[in-house]
Please model this.
Amino acid sequence: MSNGNLYARFERVFAANAGRAAIRSADGTSLSFGDLAHGAARYANALNALGVEPGDRVTVQVEKSIANVLLYLAVLKAGAVYQPLNTAYTTAEVSYFVEDAGPKLIVCDPARQAEMRALGDRLGIFAVVNIDAEGQGSLATMAATMDDRHETVARTEDDLAGLLYTSGTTGRSKGAMITHANLASNAETLVELWRITPGDTLLHALPIFHVHGLYVALNTAFLSAAPMLWFNRFDAKAMLAAMPEATLMMGVPTFYTRLLAEPGFTKDTARSMRLFISGSAPLLAETHGEFSARTGHAILERYGMTETGMITSNTHDGDRMPGTVGFALPDVSVRVRGEQPGVLEVKGPNVFKGYWRMPEKTREDFTTDGWFITGDVCTIDAQGRVTIVGRAKDLIISGGFNVYPKEIEEVLDALPGVGESAVIGVPHPDFGEGVVAVVTAKGELAPEAEIIAALSGSLAKFKVPKRIFTVDELPRNAMGKVQKAELRRRYAETFAS
Ligand code: MLC
Ligand code: AMP
Model:
């Protein structure tokens, strides 16, 4: 029986392309596909030496680096489960994710080694090792001494490959259990749909702790043997400098608005480009229009979720309609029950296995006939084209990162001087939506800057409201529910440029 481990597929591609460049970064580092295979084997041997066995979770919160890519590959190769965490998460946030996932190993930044070791001691976690932004650190040192041969662990397609946490509108954050088959089917479909070939060169500037940069970008590049130009973070000028050597880019809408803000970005800069892809947040039709006027390229928008990978995409050859997210991927089915617009439901080999140790939550998010409920309010036209018109979930997407108002409101409400609070997203020229809090005072309320500083102690920076407004009372409807739509209208101009 063939090995269902996603890495086994990568391994065949790496072997067949061993001498070709796989990743090049601006600092001159260059790895061939053969180097990737050897590096992944060394890291996998290091993981095994640290006690990691098939099915064990490995928690990873490190700065983006090529070493981080090798670690991701190694976790797959060793048959373990990759749990990536946003580098912006505070220690308080990380503690929950680690406690819930129960990993065998934590890989963190050296700056957090002591804190994570203390957390590990409290939770009985065997090993805590580190990798820094340059790809150095105790794990890198250990991997360098290891054998570069390692037998890829056999997995069934239904075994877990990743555990990615997503917050919900209520309750605790949930770990989405992603299988090898979920990842393989989605990546294979996208390679075909977007016509990715070894002749492509992908600009990779997304973080690799979320689905977009990790699974959409890396997995498609690996399966298609497309080389990548590597950036540890997004910088519009650096992207422009590299673009004449590239053919393909994947980004969140903020990447595209930031590129457009560069006067040096012209048709000539994009002369070798074949395809620009956007997702994770709504791309304004205005941005789409401005981009085609400037470069002659129609950005291809697609739509997905952590729990499902990619669900829909505009087509490569047909129209790429601004404001719509295209058609269900081959093999994937979507529906809206009852009247349109309505909540989109999805079924297919891309849909995750359920929430980690939360059977109740899993049941709530699936219909009785097995469709996953996305919480995105959509229309589907007669041709099957999907347009997202709103969200049934109280969610803000800022620069491609999800912010759940409930989480921020709970922290705000616990601050002395705050009566009650409502957190909303309003138009932001850079991040698409910007987070704003509206609060009432109960006694002495600290000044805005102090409240923001207090929140930053426990919440990741991107979640912290950029503005806090004080009101006498929050607007409520007849049922006593806070009218967030009214607040969004009131504060719509907060970030108007
Ligand atoms: C950074 N900041 C943000 C922010 N990113 N605030 C709100 N929203 C964000 N997204 C904060 C910083 O901490 C800083 O605070 C200030 O804002 C300005 O920072 P910056 O230097 O301008 O930001 P930068 O580092 O350039 O980051 C912006 C960004 C980044 C857009 C490049 O956020 C990013 O890479 N986003 C991509 C997210 C992503 O990959 N999403 C995919 C999810 S997967 P201060 O106070 O220190 O100045 C998914 C499924 C799917 O959704 O369909 O793909
Ligand atoms: P996440 O939980 O981080 O995976 O975020 C998934 C959510 O991002 C989806 O449910 C959508 O609300 C949103 N999303 C992803 N892609 C798009 C898109 N192209 N347009 C609008 N929203 C999107």
About this structure: The two ends are 59 Å apart (CA to CA). The chain has a mean pLDDT of 97. The longest strand covers residues 418-428. The chain has three domains: 6-155, 202-391, 396-490.
